[in-house]
Request: fold
Amino acid sequence: MKLSEVKEILPTLENVAFQLENGTFVPEHFHVTEVGMITKNFIDCGGVIRNEKAVNFQLWNANDFEHRLKPSKLLHIINLSENKLGIEDSEIEVEYQSDTIGKYGLEFNGKNFILTSKSTTCLAQDSCGSPKQKINLAALKNETSCCAPNSACC
Reply:
């Protein structure tokens, strides 16, 4: 989910709620302690230089159980971040504390923001020797081909 999408959703909400994919809610007294732009410059294992950008929301559970973040307050924090830090309209990554700091994607189910699981992958599978992904050829049978069967063009 991009930052612009969150900005469109917030004015329609009475409350801001974040939920994990397993149905567990982030406690309603959470704080958004950071809104920022993260830039990651790196070289993958195949030697390709890469650059990734993401908007970062950091959620934190405090001991002030009366705290409730209203949609207008979060929108204000986002607008301030855009104006002061030049944050771009990028995909959002959410940091949330569990056993350690976890990084999540963000979706919206019509009522709550959902923290979605993220996973790692090899970005240079053709050059680093990692196992190739298996393709189910039966699933491809409905795909159209540019070559006629037995034409030896492929």
